[in-house]
Amino acid sequence: MQSxxxxxxxxPNKTGELLRLTDITLNYDHFTALNHIHLTIKQAEVHAIxxxxxxxxxxxxxxxxxxxxxxxxxxxxxxREFSALTLKTALKLGIEMVYQEVCLNxxxxxxxxxxxxxxxMNAFRWNKKKHILQATQRLFASYGFEIDPGLPLxxxxxxxxxxxxxxxHIYPNPKLLILDEALEKLSSPALKKIIAILKTLKQQGxxxxxxTHRIDDVYDFADRVxxxxxxxxxxxxxxxNIDKINLIKMTYTQIVDEKHVEDLNTEFYQLLRYNEAxxxxxPVNLIVLDNEKRIKMVNEHCKQHFQLRQDAYVNAPLHxxxxxxSAKVLELLDQACSVQQETxxxxxxxxxxxxxxxxxxxxxxxxxxxxxxxxxxxLEDITEYDxxxxxxxxxxxxxxxxxxxxxxxxxxxxxLEIIYNSLKYLKYRIYDQELQEAVDDIQEEMTSIANIVSxxxxxxxxxxxxxxxxxxxxxxxxxxxxxxxxAKYKHxxxxxxxxxxxxxxxxxxxxIKQVLLNLFKNSFEVMPSGGEIFINTRLARVNGAPVxxxxxxxxxxxxxxxxxxxxxxxxxxxxxxxxxxLGLGLSVSYGIIKKxxxxxxxxxxxxxxxxxxxxxxxxx
Length: 620
Hints:
alpha+beta, Beta-Lactamase, Rossmann fold
């Protein structure tokens, strides 16, 4: 690091500059990540950096945070010149960076992550924990956030973790805050609050280098924007001087000759020629309509996503393209294309080309001067995200109830043991036959209570049991041999289609048996007049890792609930009037599968019955 002279000609008081980069070059081996970068950040401004993936945005931020050392160039910060910064120097200068990945310790509490390394907190060594809790409570209260400071970070969702990470870097009152795609992880309410906080800090003198790929955020938040492409600054200008369409075009596309599109009116054809790269190559599902609500272009990403053919959409009216959607959806889209302003709809069910999806839809009007010539429609497919969100909510519910169950079980066990011992004492001290029978009845009921408590413990216990290699196909075969007579008696036929490949998992054999027996028991109970059960196993890959999948379905009446996944909640049962059914079986089964890093889901089948799918990591 070179910490040279003060440079009066670059004094922030005279120029309004906080930071100037001159001729910065960075190489990764033989690859040039940044090539002769020149950039100025003013005091109290939000300067956005946009560009394609791999353009060099994050590398630029890490040079300023001291994580990377440039090959050449100069860094001038508040008039002081450096050839490179270290992490320590950057922090001393007042530069804080929030990286793409949340850099916190998930085993620490929220308060410890915020203030563990704080010099001010370390002064209170005699009662440090108390002071960091109080400091965190004051910080959250001042910003209007409701997060438990004593909660371990691993119990927070991604949005709250990102929020803590941002607040950790805001609290030291930096002069320059670098946000490397840090706002993208925030939920909508948290994003609004953080934007408001950052705008207030900017008014107090904070400068922000805002690295993002979300163009809308640039127009909501930034003062100036620089486009970086192939490691070079393509353009720097005030945000207000660049319209959104041109910014997207310059950031993500290259101009090439426009392909011929039939029957375009002159104005719309000119727009297509000017912005063809946006329409064809943006990595979103994008549809362009003319002002008569006819489809003029669907980009390549959208074609692939919905498996469209060329003749399926060219010049088609909007209502024909979405013909299989509900009348309410068509009415919403039609109105949005008529109001001549940016409109967004959330969680809209759309059926296109037999593909059923859940989407957020944004409609942006296109103007030529003051004349409306069409609309851009962006479809964000959130089907998988919605599924994962529901799974996460279910897991959080189960975790919360599990904690409660553990506490209840513990509190019941103590008086239960006292009563049980007292009954044993009475039984052997009283010789009256009638009283002895009464004591036996009470003991039997106490045993039932003990079983309930045991189930509560099983539900709430996340400790890993002794595991072994379990061959799933063999386990199912052995279980079918045991229950085949019971199935025959109940007129239930069981079909098993095993995978031919190895289906070995690492788990506790008895616990996997318990899961399968719960499913058999449920199917037997819902098919009193007989039916069929179908079981199959197969190998698959989830996030690149090999897994064993077990599908279990029956021909019963299915689950009479709008959300079938509710059957995994403890004490939930569709078998009304059955006092012997505690509603814990599937909760325990779900907990067992999750304990071995697997997943368990349920769905009603179209004609009748329901299907459970269990996924467990395949043993190496």
